Fold this protein.
Amino acid sequence: MRLQLNEPAAPIKSRLRAAVCVLLATGLPGVARAEGSTQLDSSVLLYGERDRADVVEPTVRVTRTRANGQSISVGLVYDVITGASPTGALPSGQVQTTTSASGQVTTVPAGAIPTTTFQDKRYALDGEVRLPLTSLLASTFAAHYSSEKDYSSLGASTKLSYDLDQRRITVTAGAAFDRDDVFPVGGTPLGLTDGSGALDSDSQPKHIASGLLGVARVVSRRWLLSLTGTRAREDGYLTEPYKVVSTVDATSGETVGQLTENRPDERTRNSVLAGSVTAIGADVLHVSYRYYWDDWSLESHTADLMYRHDVSDHSWIQPHLRWYAQNPASFYTTGLAAGAPLPAFASSDYRLGPLRTMTVGMSFGFRVAASAGEWTIRPEYIRQSLASSRAHEEEEDGPPEPGDDGLTQSAVAASAPAVELPPLDILSLVVAYSRHF
């Protein structure tokens, strides 16, 4: 089972990869581009959601840089993910018993939010080659492959960077393509059915083509600005096979069943990222803002702030604040009215809902006298909440029109209980080590 650890607009298993990302700043130590050197970067991520998912992710990357500026790097990632994830179904006043496509029977106590347990492992390998073409033009080529029990991804990307105005301006353009395959445990269920219908045992393809255009400007010796736009086109199987939507009695408001979710098979994603890096004395301030929108009517805003302060010649700290908010997708709903005509698409996945996230963290970097490398420790606390969607749906759909038969989507939303998932508390810890040889 795939698990999205971050917000939908920005998942941990992002398929855009290096060709459609701009890294303005991270909590990890900066990489010195020494010529003719080898760089080793390793880290371990410990991630835990209260009463939900737990993740352990060790990574290692080796980068070899030659005297002429050419470099090659290879990275390995291994994820172990366990825990529980909400199915999308609503709580009920009665005990709910469901059987998955794989035959697993789940019993949910009355009033509890239905979840499904899972365990998965992911292996990922990626490589990157950087080739300076001229003194001002450089190219980058990258490829990656990852595999887990019900998902695999293979992709490649390329990027060109050109320096202008005596290297005060850098223009970057890139493109990437991914071919993913989804093969759910028990087969792929038909969308908006009770799960007892025909199942497709073949893997479902998913394609992602993406592009990037960005510009970075050195405003002064102490100030750098950047602006990057990305666009990605996805097609194929985009539904989450393990998520469901509750059906609700329009009179009593009680949950009476559930249907498998169904999403469109195409999606166009867009984003604009603006960033600023400013030196304040010996300190460095990183500020960025990202606006995201797609043709599923999902929009998000992300503001990120980091401030690095050197405590001594061998240690530094970097506080981190991040705020994220998104509006729900057009087909997001808390439930569907039992007996009503079914819409083309519907999902109760909270990651497509009105999501809010606040992250507070701190990075600590230091060198140990007996060690040639640098250590980084980055703890973070994340609080994620889902606002009530009833008000949003009523606002979007408006009141029922005269003569309405009571089966419109606004009536469906009104018939479903106004359920708010309790805020999700998340803790993460990254321990990293980096050194040159």
In short: The two ends are 39 Å apart (CA to CA). The chain has one domain: 18-36+66-92+110-310+322-353+383-420.
